[in-house]
Amino acid sequence: MKWIIYILIFFSIKVAFSQSLQNTGMPIGLTEGAILKVNENFVNAGNLQNEGQIIVGGHWVNTGIYQTSGTGVVDMNGSLTQSINDQSFIERLRLSGADKTLNADLSVDNLELNGSLLTIGEGFSLEITPGGTITRQPNDYIIGRLVMTGNQTYPIGTSNYFLPVTINQLTGDAAPIGIQAVESALPGPLDNTIAEKAPFYWVMDESEEEFNVLVGFENADFLQELEYAMVLQAASANATVYSLYQDSTSGDTALGLIANDPNHPLTLSYFSIGRKYLPKDKPPIKVLNLVSPNGDGKNEYLFIENIDAYPECLVVIYDRWGTKVFEQRGYDNREKVFRGNNNVLKKSELTEGTFYYVIRSEGQKLGSGFFELMR
User: Which residues contact 206 (CB under 8 A, 6 or more apart)?
Assistant: First the structure.
């Protein structure tokens, strides 16, 4: 076998065959148009110059030097799962046949997926160099951390979901950004606009820039209808999840796309999709009919149970003569609350007595009744 490789250094042989190949240090060269076919594993610890095509049926291991001036192709087409262990650079990488695994950090100019899923090992990443490309068949994508530069579509997913992401960077200069899909729901608490979240999310490299995103998903029956879908974001896996709402959707819950509202760009590293509250699954409100803002920590404000499910709510309070003394949109049981003060005209403390409230949301009356103000 060493004799065959030696000839390849000097001649452009059309096809050379090997069952397996382990180069421990000697230089190997393929001229343009030459083909080296290795049925099993290819291991290179030397200097490999490839201007032709190397077809590998087993595993690819490169701990040496791999070089090409642009025409060289590494073609992995084995019928069993193949692994790539190459802490170098492959300009043109073609993957076909069975699925592949990458167990190193690798840079590629042009990646072609032709009937293969590529799984990147934990802690590693695949970078497509600036100006590089990914071509793929409809069912092919990448599982793991994919790094690209500029406004790109990341054909990524998990073992059970295809979850492509297209990013549009709104601020700053283009820089390499890694994104990975995770098959788990964001565990953090939901803000009061979100009823349910997806069983998957994405993690993007930390950045001070702003982005618009178009995210794809499969089997999202929890959305019921795409009109209820929203893009979500969080600062970390366990942080509060906030809504970025939606600008547009396409497809359906079986296979769809959704973009965030441009007025609410992506600014955090974790993002997902979720569903807003529907009228049928919003919990009923209940008003505690006593307010005693005396500083003892009890009944300091008008508490409205479940009001956080109605972020667009309007709470209006009248005195015993029917004069409006309080009005608050987005009542939240935290900062936007009634503490016994008139916020309409006099901006002063109200005297003890009986008051009447009306609560509305999106044109619908949620409730009304009386409560007592005691000091």
Answer: 269
Amino acid at 42: F
For 25-50, the pLDDT digits (tens) are 788 888 888 999 999 999 999 888 99
Structure tokens at 118: 């590529």
Give the amino acid at 264.
H
3-class DSSP state of 10? helix
Residue with tokens 């008003």: 287
pLDDT tens readout for residues 305-338: 989 888 889 999 999 999 999 999 999 998 999 9
Using alpha carbons, list the distances in angstroms from residue 302 to 34, 70, 311, 359: 81, 71, 16, 12
The 10 Å Cβ neighbour count of residue 99 is 15
Q: What is the pLDDT of residues 259-283, one digit of tens each?
A: 999 999 999 999 999 998 777 777 8
Question: DSSP letters along 211-232, please?
Answer: EEEEEEEE--GGGSSGGGEEEE
